[in-house]
Design a protein that fits this description.
alpha/beta, 281 residues, eight-stranded mixed β-sheet, Rossmann fold, 2 domains
Length: 281
């Protein structure tokens, strides 16, 4: 495992590829970076170097809860530091779902560090706005209120985190349950404040201000509706749109691994886009 000290916390990362322009991909939800390993290997085969990492409070990275900003903003600033440490700026920055939101915020906060945006499965709409606050925060607030931090450790999501980084259990058990509830309650409120926007967490004015070359591949479930991807494409001036041969499905969520059959096409689409951007520099 490779770790870097990023803004006071240990961040687990991996680089795929030995040479070429830098790309970084950010996974969705609160999942570790391994989800993007197959796609990253395909991009590396096309001549790119891909940096993957576990965001703070995910995967094998350290845990440090912070309620001053939405998590995606904190993750964006962490990634800027990590890329600088690898001498990987500017880079193509992309992600899926919450990773796409993080990539957009990265571009807004650090435009000088972005060669282009690669957006997958953009999140938005009423269903996502109703589902995600509970998925990310509500269930853990209740666990802490009803059973303290031991109950939080026993949830499926935190069991996975502890398996990836056993030190997380000690950090959680040392934390006062009321403080944990307070932090997550504030994070939930910050998240909800931007949840009902057409592209979750990002205003129309912010999207229209993006100047980086951008490509959007919409999703096809109720959390990542195709309409959200189309909205991002419509609002980001000059962005490209690529539609996979998929139809919208009336299901809460299609796991990313079910998109494995489309990875060759995604890799080709991203590689071709990045090469066109590089040719214009």
């Amino acid at each position: 495992m490779a770790f870097a000290k990023v803004r006071g916390i240990d961040i687990h990362y991996e680089v795929i590829g030995d040479a070429g322009p830098w790309v970084t991909l950010i996974t969705g939800g609160r999942r570790g970076h391994q989800e993007f390993l197959p796609l990253s290997r395909k991009l590396a085969a096309g001549g790119f170097r891909v940096l993957l990492h576990d965001r703070r409070n995910t995967g094998a990275s350290g845990m440090l809860l912070d309620d001053r900003e939405v998590e995606e903003a904190v993750w964006a600033d962490d990634l800027r530091d990590l890329l600088a440490q690898q001498d990987a700026v500017p880079a193509f920055v992309g992600g899926s779902s919450s990773g796409a939101r993080t990539a957009i915020l990265f571009c807004l906060r650090h435009p000088e560090a972005v060669r282009g945006l690669l957006l997958l499965r953009v999140t938005g709409g009423a269903f996502a706005a109703g589902r995600l606050p509970e998925n990310y925060y509500g269930q853990f607030i209740r666990a802490a209120e009803e059973g303290g931090m031991a109950a939080v450790c026993a949830t499926e999501a935190y069991r996975e985190r502890i398996a990836a980084n056993p030190a997380v259990r000690d950090e959680l058990l040392k934390m006062d349950a009321k403080r944990f509830v307070g932090i997550l309650t504030k994070l939930r409120a910050l998240f909800v404040a931007g949840a009902h926007l057409p592209v979750m967490g990002v205003t129309e004015d912010q999207l229209r201000s993006i100047g980086a070359p951008t490509i959007v591949i919409p999703g096809n479930d109720n959390t990542h509706s195709s309409q959200s991807g189309l909205a991002a494409h419509r609002m980001i001036a000059g962005s490209e749109l690529h539609r996979l041969p998929v139809e919208d499905q009336d299901v809460p969520l299609i796991p990313f691994d079910e998109w494995a059959v489309h990875e060759d096409e995604i890799a080709r689409t991203f590689t071709d886009f990045m090469r066109r951007v590089l040719a214009k520099e």
